[in-house]
Here is the input.
Amino acid sequence: MKGEYSLTVIIIVSAILLVQSIYLFLDARKHNHNYWLWGIVGLIQAPMPTLFYLIFVRKIFRKKRRSEANSNYDDCYD
Here is the structure.
């Protein structure tokens, strides 16, 4: 029975993809990015679109470094 999946697995995977797509769509729209693209890409596969969005579009890791660098800079002149 190769290639047969249970209904539970199909429902779980569909729910994960749908939630991911909705999150990407709403967050990209909130931050003025190409929200239709991210919503559609989020329906294709998980979790890579979310990781790419957070790393390359939102640049979450770079913002933390800048804020830490600015706080260290401010501490030097207090």
